[in-house]
């Protein structure tokens, strides 16, 4: 009898819990799921942004095909009258047919993305939208390198400020200053420091050290653009990672370290056997949050590089505002969402974070 009463009480409590959660679920549907579903639907249309002159048509996967279609074609060598491959007198390199003549134009026009040589043959990679493929590459490189650096540096800073030393409170406050600065403001600050002459801080310092000529164009030289953007982001966001990891360190009981010291474990062994395993859930959360931000990075790219080099988010902005192509922009948004989901799952699997074990 008592068992039945407990069972009825549990069921009533369960129903009450569902009723209490219902408003939260409805709000979540309105502010999150509905907009997400709307973006998914729009990505299958040719909808125009801020325009009523064109009727929206359902076009299926055409936007995704336009963004992601890639082809690889072999470039035939240019031969002379003797049947030998011509050599460019300026570069002293073998000459090949122009990519524009080889890449298909129907049913979609492919443009040159890159070229490479394999087993003595020359190939061209063509894409229907090479700017977006480049934007994906730029975003992934930016994400992987910046998040890795920020995690390592953030862990190091968190370990330092978690130890006992004089002025620890001031250090914890000071380390948050870069993160507290608005991203656009910090990007503008770095833009001034990266000026391609001796007005820029870095050119001045490098010139004093005898490196370069004081005219290094950090933001216009192809090979220096991404490293410059990554440096700006690492400076600003490392304190955020340090703060999250520091919170995880505060949850590790001191008794574990005391027991390890009694057993004769060194500081390095304590780090790998106690600190890192206990920090796995915290690091997983930090990586997910930071990767989410990095994959949809907009402000740093837009302020410092504008249209010289796109991230996925800045190219999304270009298509939506510049070309008013809302359908294509929505498809880019969906692709960003998919990338974020993939990274989140990878982190959780790799770090072994399982809610059933906690």
Automatic annotation (TrEMBL):
Keywords: Cell membrane, Membrane, Transmembrane, Transmembrane helix, Transport. Residues 136-347 form the ABC transmembrane type-1 domain. SUPFAM superfamilies: MetI-like. The keyword Transmembrane applies. Gene3D superfamilies: MetI-like. Belongs to the binding-protein-dependent transport system permease family. This is ABC transporter permease.
């Amino acid at each position: 009898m008592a068992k039945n009463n407990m069972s009825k009480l549990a069921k009533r409590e369960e129903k009450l819990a569902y009723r209490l959660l219902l408003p939260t679920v409805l709000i979540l549907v309105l502010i999150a799921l509905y907009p997400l579903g709307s973006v998914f639907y729009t990505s299958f249309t040719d909808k125009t942004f801020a325009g009523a002159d064109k009727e929206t048509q359902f076009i299926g996967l055409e936007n995704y095909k336009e963004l992601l279609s890639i082809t690889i074609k072999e470039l035939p060598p240019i031969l002379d009258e003797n049947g030998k491959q011509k050599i460019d007198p300026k570069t002293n390199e073998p000459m090949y047919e122009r990519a524009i003549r080889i890449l298909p134009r129907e049913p979609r026009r492919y443009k040159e993305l890159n070229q490479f040589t394999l087993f003595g043959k020359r190939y061209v990679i063509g894409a229907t939208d090479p700017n977006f493929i480049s934007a994906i590459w730029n975003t992934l490189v930016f994400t992987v390198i910046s998040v890795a650096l920020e995690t390592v540096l953030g862990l190091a800073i968190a370990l330092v400020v978690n130890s006992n030393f004089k002025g620890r409170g001031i250090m914890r406050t000071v380390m948050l200053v870069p993160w507290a600065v608005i991203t656009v403001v910090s990007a503008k600050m770095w833009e001034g420091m990266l000026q391609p002459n001796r007005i820029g801080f870095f050119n001045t310092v490098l010139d004093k050290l005898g490196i370069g000529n004081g005219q290094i164009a950090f933001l216009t030289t192809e090979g220096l653009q991404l490293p410059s953007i990554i440096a700006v982001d690492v400076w600003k966001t490392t304190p955020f990672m340090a703060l999250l990891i520091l919170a995880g360190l505060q949850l590790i009981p001191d008794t574990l370290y005391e027991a390890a010291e009694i057993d004769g474990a060194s500081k390095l062994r304590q780090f790998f056997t106690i600190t890192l395993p206990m920090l796995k859930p915290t690091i997983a959360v930090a990586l997910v949050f930071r990767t989410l931000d990095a994959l949809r990075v907009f402000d740093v790219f837009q302020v410092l590089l504008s249209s010289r080099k796109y991230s996925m988010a800045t190219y999304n902005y270009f298509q939506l505002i510049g070309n008013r192509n809302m359908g294509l922009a929505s498809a880019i948004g969906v692709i960003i969402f998919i990338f974020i989901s993939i990274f989140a799952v990878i982190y959780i699997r790799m770090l072994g974070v399982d809610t059933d074990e906690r």
